[in-house]
Amino acid sequence: MIKTGDKYQHKTRYTQEDVIGFAKVSGDCNPIHLDPEFAAKTPFARPIVHGFLSASVFSKVFGMLFPGNGTIYLSQEMKFLAPVFTDRDYTAVFEVTEVNREKHKGIIKCSLVDDLTGKECISGTAVLKNNEQFV
Amino acid sequence: MIKTGDKYQHKTRYTQEDVIGFAKVSGDCNPIHLDPEFAAKTPFARPIVHGFLSASVFSKVFGMLFPGNGTIYLSQEMKFLAPVFTDRDYTAVFEVTEVNREKHKGIIKCSLVDDLTGKECISGTAVLKNNEQFV
Fold it and tell me: Whole-angstrom Cα distance, residue A41 to residue A36?
């Protein structure tokens, strides 16, 4: 059973192979993610991880770990505050801000934080349904 | 140059191979996406495409087509209104609702629509920066 105020953390890391794999399945071959020469001319200086790939750790955690099995994703809001790079350690940080036990719904604040700098790279909020956990 | 009221459409389709590929790179191996037997016991009756994969068409269009090159993703809000299935045709539909020419920012309403039923499966809003298009 998950309740308001519950917290969860999950360590994550992205490789350039993940970025290439995501480009393939999504069709998002924006050179800012794939081409070091192109990326060198941008404010980021080197290739950045797709926002949708870096934020997909939220989906992974919600579907598999917290709340886990049976989770249905109702909505996700996310702000991309800082670039996410490959081969660096990040932590996805979660806090439950509201639970509606009748509708089995929960609102979870989620962030992706750079372990080295402590900087929040993604800030977001998700609304989930889970008949077994939000009870 | 992109201006308020501009519209754009992009046809898309997902395969089970895309779903498996996304599960690998994201680590989101929720059986609702991968296991037909598990999915059969859910209200969806069969495996559904990950929300982050189906919505990644927004990222693809923004980064490569509309506005295209040089786009920086600032935020994305998305509501998952109906399940997205493999081997069906969908259309991603976009409309520019606001442009800030000084800050080179634009707000774009985006949806994923099921071609067969006309049903809106994802409804969202994105905020983008593009120094060449929002001028």
Answer: 9
Q: Is the ipTM of this complex over 0.90?
A: yes
Most B CBs within 10 A among A12, A30, A33, A104, hence the mutation to make, goes to: A30
Contacts of A31 in chain B (CB under 8 A): 69
**Contact call for A32 and B74, based on CB within 8 A:** no
Q: How far is A23 from chain B (nearest CA, A)?
A: 9
CA angle (A14, B76, A121) in 5-degree steps: 40
Number of Cβ within a 10 Å radius of residue A108 = 25
B64–A29 CB contact, under 8 Å:
yes
Task: Indicate the pLDDT class of residue A91, thresholds 50, 70 and 90.
Answer: very high
Tens-place pLDDT, residues B64-116: 999 998 899 999 999 999 999 999 999 999 999 999 999 999 999 999 999 99
Residues 6+ apart with CB under 8 A from B127: B74, B75, B76, B105, B106, B107, B108
**Cβ pair B128, B74 in contact under 8 A:** yes
Tell me which CATH code domain A7-129 carries.
3.10.129.10
Give the global pTM. Answer: 0.95
**Is A70's pLDDT higher than 90?**
no
Domain boundaries, chain B: 7-129
